Amino acid sequence: MFVVGGSASQLLSKELAKSLRAKLAKVEIKRFPDDECYVRIDEDLDDQEVFLVQTSWPDRNIVELFLLQDAIKEFDVDSLTTVVPYFGYARQDKQFKPGEPISARAIARLIQMNTDEFITVDVHAPSVTDWFEGKSAKNVVAYPEIGKYLKGKGIELILSPDEGRADNAKRVADVVNCEADFLVKERLDGETVKMTPKRLDAKDKKVAIVDDIISTGGTIVKAAEQLRKQGAAKIYAVCTHGVFAGNAIPKLEAVCDDICTTDTIENPKTCMSVAPQIARIARD
Ligand code: R5P
Fold first, then answer.
1. pLDDT per residue over 118-174, tens digit each?
2. CA 168, 173, 270, 277 torsion: positive or negative?
3. In ligand 1, which atom is closest to the CA atom of 218?
4. How is the beta sheet containing 117-121 ordered, strand by strand?
5. Is the separation of the CB atoms in 184 and 195 below 8 Å?
């Protein structure tokens, strides 16, 4: 069994190889002077079960993913499972206005053409797996790892910044063994969110805000401001996918005591791995 790691998912590929007791493949990845991508797999993958791990964000990593799939399929592999830890474009999972693409479906259709199986993690739109017609497509949940990270830190409240992710916050709270609550959020545009004030049982408590994605940080900042006003003692911001667009990290550091993400996107705040969860579902 081999794990092939794309350049966006080097840490996670190593962890996954360990969890699966697989060999980490030697891969050469470079860019030509005109920025076109070159990949070469320096292993014999004939008759092997292969896991390709590559986050499909930002766009340049999508092209690298397609080239790695193609290189792997040039061998006579036993099976290829494409693992896309952070599935970019999942937030455009429908036409919001006429004339728009269903971007998540467009990417899913291209990935499924050259794989036998597909695994992703905490995908924003669960409908993504439906677009892998006739192929096994699984969505791994990160909450057990997030719960493990927060357990033992004395967290007394887990907060979801919107109602849509309240179930996830509850699952994390069950692992931590504490209360869960949620806020009511309205997105005004890509950078601005409005949060309805709500009385939270946060006074003098250590609170963790848990979300699937932190992008601009606007959502977490608004939630943290409410918690501060209501006297929270310590605020943790935890998410699966740390996109951290623009100056999100300093914005968050100004209002949160601790920021932590999984390794679906490798970033300066990565402090836990989803490899055990991917390995568990891969063995099912
Ligand atoms: C939205 O529905 C997601 O769950 C996140 O809350 C959102 O993507 C976070 O974005 P930002 O950090 O830009 O507020």
1. 999 999 998 899 999 889 999 999 999 999 999 989 999 999 999 989 999 999 999
2. negative
3. 14
4. 23-24, 2-5, 49-53, 79-84, 117-121, 136-140
5. yes
The answer to whether 3 touches 13, Cβ cutoff 8 Å, is yes
Beta bridge partners of 51: 3, 81
Which of 219, 225, 265 should be mutated for ligand 1, with most atoms under 8 A from CB?
A: 219
DSSP-derived secondary structure for 148-197: HHHTTTT--EEEESSGGGHHHHHHHHHHHTSEEEE-EEEE-SSS-EEEE-
Cα-Cα-Cα-Cα dihedral sign, residues 149, 172, 180, 240:
positive
- Model pTM score: 0.94
Q: What is the pLDDT of residue 195?
A: 82
Which residues are within 8 A (CB) of 42 and not within 5 positions of it... i.e. 6 or more apart?
Answer: 25, 26, 27, 28
Q: In angstroms, what is the span from residue 99 Cα to ligand 1's centroid?
A: 24
Residue with tokens 């470079």: 30
Of 87, 96, 189, 214, the residue with max ligand 1 atoms within 8 A of its CB, to mutate for a pocket test, comes to: 214
